[in-house]
Amino acid sequence: MKAWLVEKTEGAARLAWRDVADLVPGANDLLVKVRAVGINRADLALNAGHYARIPTRPPHPIAGLEAAGEVIGMGADVKGYAIGDRVMGMPAGAYAEQVLLDHRLAVRVPAGLGWAAAAAIPVALFTAHDAIVTNGRLAKGEAVFIQAASSGVGIAAAQIARARGAGVIAGTASAAKLARLAQYGLTHGIDHAQGGAAEAVMRATGGAGADVIVDMVGAKAIDDHLAMAALGARWIQIGRMGGISGPVDLNELSRKRIALIGVTFRTRDVAEFAAVVRAAWDDFGGAAASGAFAMPVEKVFALAEADRAHAAMRENRHFGKFILEA
Is the pLDDT of residue 301 over 80? Predict the structure, then answer.
């Protein structure tokens, strides 16, 4: 099969389109013919070592962590799936013509959903649901603030917050993207180039602040998040595009009784990962099937054009997801 390998030379990583041996499923694996791949910002780091505690992974350093396709083989312990089933999920080594996906981490592609639309869903939905519902414990009428609201996770977070009955859904994006975010649930758009996110959130909430903060920026936004947090806020730390460390005013954190919670898939074992998948799909699988939950696709590239797709993502002008189709 063909695959995009992560190759390192003199400390520098690059993608290389190579021929590698076809994959052999382990006992719990679905062998999937890849039809479409979702591209995520984490992929730009060119690190094939995601999901350290998940035993299912290819024997090659293949890039990617999100795909949809058809089951063409399976391990002896797999139950509930058959050859030809359409599935999607978050497998290691997604940038390839075949991928291995532990059946406990797979969900079925709803009838009528195309391959590109399916591959755009898993990372955004599972990550955002884990942040807002499981860890953020969002209650009806509460306020949510979403950093990087035009990212895949941001767009998913806005839809989840709307479905859960949030009173205020605020988020940052470029001015050009804010109008489009309104159709996904954003009620108060904030132009990140103008700053003033904390002030805007406090105005939108009548001075109460955000009950749930979905943080995909990290260090650069620490002061804003402390300033905008409501009493008892849940600050969910997902991404660190704006830096990995910075000073936190612990007195203010304690005064407001803020719960700062870090989330990642990298250290979850199969059971923990599966619990995230099942919770999200139980809540939003029906919405994905009906189109009530959907991820916008910015552009579809051929699987052999992953390097071009990465270059487009680095420009940071897109809205939603880039997809590779096999």
Answer: yes
What's the CA gap between 49 and 62, in Å, rounded? 9
Mean pLDDT, the chain, integer: 96
Q: Do residues 87 and 106 make contact, with C-beta atoms less than 8 angstroms apart? A: yes
DSSP reduced 3-state for 234? strand
Which residue has tokens 């009906």?
Answer: 290
Mean pLDDT of the 107-116 span: 97
Helix (H, G, I), strand (E, B) or coil at 326: coil
Average pLDDT over residues 36-48: 93
pLDDT value at position 49?
77
Contacts with 28 (C-beta within 8 Å, 6 or more apart), sequence order: 56, 75, 77, 78, 102, 103, 104, 270
- What's the pLDDT score for residue 292? 97
Place 7 in a pLDDT band, splitting at 50, 70 and 90.
very high
Contact 119, 87 (CB under 8 A): no
Element (H, E) at 36: strand 29-38
Inform me whether the pLDDT recorded for 220 exceeds 90: yes
- Looking at the structure, give the CATH architecture of the domain made up of residues 2-120+266-325: Alpha-Beta Complex (3.90)
The residue extents of the domains of the chain are 2-120+266-325, 124-262
Give the helix ranges, DSSP H, for the chain.
115-119, 122-129, 152-163, 175-181, 197-204, 222-228, 250-255, 270-290, 306-314
Q: DSSP letter string over 95-147?
A: SBSEEEEEGGG-EEPPTT--HHHHHTSHHHHHHHHIIIIIIT---TT-EEEET
> 124-262: which CATH topology?
Rossmann fold (3.40.50)
- Residue 37 has a CB neighbour count (10 Å cut-off) of 33
**Within 13 Å and on the Cβ side, how many CA atoms surround 120?**
25
Q: What is the Cα–Cα distance from 34 to 100, expressed in whole angstroms? A: 10
Mean pLDDT of 154-164: 98
